[in-house]
Design goal:
The protein is of the alpha/beta class. It contains 24 helices and six strands.
Length: 529
Amino acid sequence: MPDLKLAPDRLRFLIILLLMVGIFFRFFNIDGKVYWHDETFTSLRISGYTANEVRQQIFNGRIINKESFAKFQSLNVEKGLSDTIMSLETEDPQHPPLYYVIARFWVGIFGNSVAIIRSLSTFISLLIFPSIYWLCRELFKASVWVSEVAIALMAISPIHLVYAQEAREYILWIVTILLCSASLLRALRLESKDKALRILTWGIYAVTLALSLYTFLLSGFVAVAHGIYVIATARFRLNRTVKAYLLASLTGFLAFTPWMLVVIDNFLQFDSSTTWTKMQLPLDILIKSWLLQLSRIFLDLNFGFENLFSYVITPIFLTLVGYSIYFICRTTHDKIWLFIVTLIVIPALPLVLPDLIFGGIRSLSERYLLPSYLGIQLAVTYLLATQLHNASLVRRRIWQIIMGLVIICGLVSYGVSSQAETWWSKVISYGNPQVAKIINQVAHPLLISNDSGINYGNVFSLSYLLQPKVQFQLVKDQTIPYIPDDLTDIFLLNPSDSWRRQIEISYQYKTNILYGDNHYLLWKVENPH
């Protein structure tokens, strides 16, 4: 690699090239991966229907085809914007409405295909680049190349690609976190200016905070991190800056009050929608998963921690991240390192500590830890950018090689992801492409399932993959379906053992497993007569 200290034009060219590559892969094969469980709920919210209405209309034991799902996955004349918001209020209060309102207008203008609805997230992801540039300029001031290197690393970060191609609100959350953080630092920098400018800058922070809260509830923890940072840098004195921050934060939270009242009013629904986070896992599994999540910021080949390769790469990236945090704490002013450390630690603690003390898997959802990942990326960016200009030629060469390896990891991850039909981020729908292939192979398939657990969303997900010849028979709870005698290619999607045995006894059938993973099973129903 050339001496970047002496060749800024070449570094600039490399950054522009990586930015172009990152943008290309964000749009490439955007509809290639399975439209998974959670994304079908995005389409449901856009349609304005509730899950209960869907249960009444198609989970009633009648035999239907895949066209019956369409009206619940697209705009329709029966429901309006108010229905979209109302469906979130009653069934998904943990998801504020901002993204879904934008998505509804997006679909109304451009159409309803998987590529179109995912492209909203992709276009939103492009706002990350000016946002991270602004944040780095505010945080690191005139530090050489930090802002530009940040853009390059964000452009090829695998974790950003995952959410830039998913029809959910998380990429918008990243953008609002960056804007909110940058506007806070700008307000602090301009605090000593005239009154009108102070009001404007703190007003911008209040607006961006409210937008972030209306995007995702966990923005509240980011606000706490900001508060700790402001109070700590003020040496715990209630000065004019702290008062201005408190007033701006209060304004942002007051603007969010209507949705907070919705959450409180529907707390039981909120609690039931998040029960999956309370599943118990051994401590060693949690630690391995955390390390794997950390490595996915830089390298993601769709491996689980059970893969031997993960045992090699996770210590390497843990060392890089650990040294980056140490380096920034040792070499920068507390107004810089404290911002990054609070952004990493504070949003993660409410997720990690309950998992350690009470058990659960809150911290195993990468999307919940996105603020911490942004803090980690800022630390690594500063380390790499500054070491590219180290006075020692040997050290400079070493860090150039390390940066080159980080770039290669990102590019390889993008290449692998672009060809895949499923990914770890699809979680409970990871196996749907394989299940669809099995069902599509037979001549006259009938898929039977119910609305229990993950089955509801996975049936909708499968409807995007199954051929028109496939018929569905959906029932509520453990109702025994009426199976016509002339059907022979019958499949059961993820039945409970008791429900499956009741079907076997009722029809004198036998069932055999055709597919299984950590989340669900596909059974083939055999008529022995």
